[in-house]
Structure formats: C-alpha cells, structure tokens
C-alpha cells in the first residue's frame, strides 16, 4: 500500500499544528508565569512567605489584600491587622526567580520564588 505525502497546501497547516504542540510541551505548569511577579515567594533568610495572584496578595501575616499589579511589579498598603499597618510596600521582579521588596522605611529585602505552602 502506497501512502501519499501531504499536499503542498496542507503542509504549512501541519507544520503550524506541530509547532504549537511542541511549544505547549515546553511550557510546563509554573513556567508560564515565570516572567511575571505572580506566584509564591519566600524570604531569603526567614520562613516568611507571600503569594501574588494578579491584584491579590496573601501577605506574610496571612492576610488577603488587593494591591497595584503590574506584570513585573506589585505594591500594596499593609493591611490594618498586619505588622507595619498603613505602610506601602513595593516589589520589583529582578529575574524569573527573584524580587526586590522595598519596605516603608526604605530598606530592601530579596525574596526567592518558591513552591506553594504545605499545610
């Protein structure tokens, strides 16, 4: 039995479909947001954690709040029941796995991307 090769008109469509599937295979879960500030973050020297999902943050104290979201930056006013209430915190993505956090007094901290919290 002789199998015919794809017609020249169908070949670009098949190549495009193959390319899309190959690209989808390269983007494993978690990597799709690697170039954004969204995700779970851990302080480099303490056990503090925070999570950013769009304009929503779960602060290191565990409080859910809204802030100003940019793909590579985030800022928020510390909620009333958290330490440092009323101060503004700014965050800047420094690479796929690192953010610089600027505290209300002007000091800075570096935080690393980490996995979801385990309860």
Could you write a compact summary of the structure shown?
The protein has 119 residues and is mainly beta. It has one helix at residues 11-26, and strands at 39-43, 49-53, 56-58, 64-66, 68-70, 73-77, 88-95, 98-102, 108-114.
What is the structural class? mainly beta
Gyration radius over CA: 21 Å
**CATH class category of the domain at 39-114:** Mainly Beta
H/E order of the elements?
HEEEEEEEEE
Report the strand count. Answer: 9
- Note the main sheet: 9 strands, antiparallel
Can you tell me the overall shape?
globular
* Strand order, sheet with most strands: 4-3-2-1-9-8-7-6-5
| Helix share, percent | 10-25%
Alpha plus pi helix count: 1
What is the terminal-to-terminal distance? 60 Å
- CATH overall fold name of the domain at 39-114: Lipocalin
Q: Would you kindly provide a written description of the structure presented here, covering whatever features stand out?
A:
With 119 residues, the chain is mainly beta. It has a domain at 39-114: Lipocalin (Beta Barrel). The chain is built from 1 helix and 9 strands. It has one helix spanning 11-26; strands at 39-43, 49-53, 56-58, 64-66, 68-70, 73-77, 88-95, 98-102, 108-114. The protein has a 9-stranded antiparallel beta sheet, with no helix packed on it. Residues 15-33 have low confidence and may be disordered.
